[in-house]
Amino acid sequence: MKDSDTQVQVYEFLKFFLGMASCLSNCVCLFGWNIGKNKTSDKPQTNYHKLDLPFPSSLLTKTFLNGKELKCCYKATLDGFSATSFHECSDFKGPCVIIGYTNNSFKFGAFNPEGYRSTDDYYDTFDAFLFYWADEEKDEPIVLPKVGGSGAALFDYARGGPQFGADGLLIGPPLAPVMGGFAGPDTNSGVGDLTQARSRLGLSYAKRADGKESLFGDESKASLEEVLVFCSPQIASLY
Question: What InterPro entries does the record tag this protein with (predicted)?
């Protein structure tokens, strides 16, 4: 075979190879994967709210968030009080802190070491806790740890807001039963309203320092004017 013929064959092969590579880099396969494309460009950007932390950093000393920069990923008065809005802003952000304000200016919160993913499942942990401020003038809140074993410390219902224990703290619980990841014939109905919360302490989380069996004091239920969620952007970027 002549050298010129060999060169032509090599040239034609390179053209074919480069052409295939170009097609692969731009194609989208049947499963929706963009081959050769930087997936980080497809990831939705989180819009964080510019807020000062409404709790002392010392609250998180023994948690995964210790020393991490925290930002507000969910603000109910702007993002919406529905459980759907809550999960759209809070899912796949990693461990987080929830802060709530009642219509009586009572301030409380909770720490979720697992984060949210709308799994319709529950998690066992000793690391979750509730907290509240007995005196608005004091910066340090009173912490209520998990009691009664680590079981069912957190619930992550897609149609509900934050839930700690079966009854410790429920903010915007689902309005229809959730059974084994299936919530009924219409999964878009029965979405929780985060303006409503209830609490019963003693079984899953410790009672208040004053012995009261509700995080809200004398009342088992409360109406909320604001709910905030703070997470670590550094951790959230890993999802």
Answer: TLDc_dom
